[in-house]
Amino acid sequence: MNTEGTPAMNKPAMKKWLKLLLAGSLALNLAMIGIAAGAALRYGDKDRDWHRRPPPSVGAMIFRQLDAETRESLRQQAGGGHGSFMQRRHAEGAAVIAALRSSDFDAAALLAVLRTQAESRHVFHTRVQETWVRKLAAMTPAERAVFADRMEQRMRWFGQHPVRTEAASGTGGTDLPKDSGN
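Now predict its structure.
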């Protein structure tokens, strides 16, 4: 058969709108790759501390070291007339929102609400601290030293990626400190 001079196997030509669609798709894919690469370059520097979560506050570490019953009791006390700590927090938020939406906004009244909320948080924090210090006073010096080491490790390692030690130690765990949660 002579194929010279005949159209290539009667293959239909690609439609113009399909060519435009494919070109647009390619452009969008390249743009997304560029955005991802730019973000990796900008935010991928491991020497910067701003992208890591900060270590837990000392107050949070103190609270976690109390036993579950004590924490629940402190939460109930913090709830006051609202029944629970969470209900009190919702009521505090609702009070601020109501003050913001008031047609006759009273800055002094809002400030008074915020100060009352801050005072109740201060009372809660003081109770937690006093309870924790009583717990520490009952410990031996060696127990307190172990506890201090654990707090120091948590502050140092928090927000960093754990180093896998499965091959080295055979434990299947990480180098993160063990925290009993009590």
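Residues 107-137 form the longest helix (31 residues).
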